[in-house]
Design goal:
Number of helices: 7
Helix content: 40-55%
Oligomer: single chain
Distance between the termini: 70 Å
Shape: elongated
Radius of gyration: 36 Å
Largest sheet: 5 strands, antiparallel
Number of strands: 5
Length: 242
């Protein structure tokens, strides 16, 4: 036997230690689970068992079933308490905090403005704006940033007087004010007077809220074109016949 090779005893010892390390997490998990069942079920067993018939209590495995039932019932109760505290108590204390902030002079105005902006341009209401558009407003030659909100035609669109023989397709555009975009103007404009921009709705919001200080880059950065590897073998010229 080579001196570098482990002995038979060392091999058995290493195999035993490996198996022990593999079974240790499972054993600890089973021990924690059984202790938890016994702790929960046994804590109320003395109060409930006197009301259970003797024939049921002596049934084999009844204590284990009782521990499982008590543990499941406790998990359900904890989950219900979590839902109640999250939706009811959370709204209650959130309302108290909001009323307290609004009662502070100077801070209430800023808080209301920021809250209106967040509520108006939050993730839910942001989907109302389809595209960022450029329109002439409030007079020809003066351009404003707006958001396209609808392309469908309703009563207002169909009853707009026009001198053209064919009906004009009118789109609904919301033109917010800067830097507080919670107010603005709702206008119905012909399709050919609306220029759709490539910038995202988020970039348009940033531009309006900043008063034009934040301007999205243009043109957009083009994705990098992968460069062919220089290690590739050069193409061989076609074989020329003598």
């Amino acid at each position: 036997m080579s001196p570098t090779e482990p002995t038979r005893f060392a091999q058995l010892r290493n195999a035993f230690i490996s198996g022990l390390l593999m079974l240790a997490p499972l054993a600890v998990t089973l021990w924690v689970f059984s202790s938890l069942l016994e702790l929960i079920g046994g804590s109320v067993r003395d109060f409930v068992f006197p009301y259970i018939p003797e024939a049921v209590r002596t049934f084999p495995g009844f204590e284990l079933l009782w521990n499982l039932f008590a543990t499941a019932l406790l998990i359900v109760l904890i989950t219900l308490i979590g839902y109640i505290s999250r939706y009811l108590l959370g709204r209650y204390f959130g309302g108290l905090a909001e009323r307290f902030i609004q009662s502070i002079p100077g801070v209430s105005g800023v808080y209301k403005t920021v809250k209106q902006i967040v509520d108006t341009f939050g993730s839910q209401n942001r989907n109302l704006f389809n595209k960022v558009v450029l329109v002439q407003f409030p007079r020809p030659g003066c351009y404003a940033i707006g958001f396209l909100t609808n392309k469908n035609s309703g009563e207002a669109q169909t009853k707009v007087p026009t001198e053209l023989p064919s009906p004009v397709e009118l789109w609904t555009v919301f033109i917010p004010t800067a830097p507080n975009p919670t107010s603005g103007f709702l206008v119905l404009l012909p399709r050919d007077e609306i220029t759709i921009l490539d910038m995202s709705v988020g970039d348009g919001m940033k531009m309006i809220i900043s008063g034009g200080a934040v301007i999205p880059p243009w043109p957009p950065t083009a994705p990098a074109t992968p460069v062919a590897s220089s290690s590739a073998a050069p193409s061989r010229p076609p074989f020329a016949s003598p």
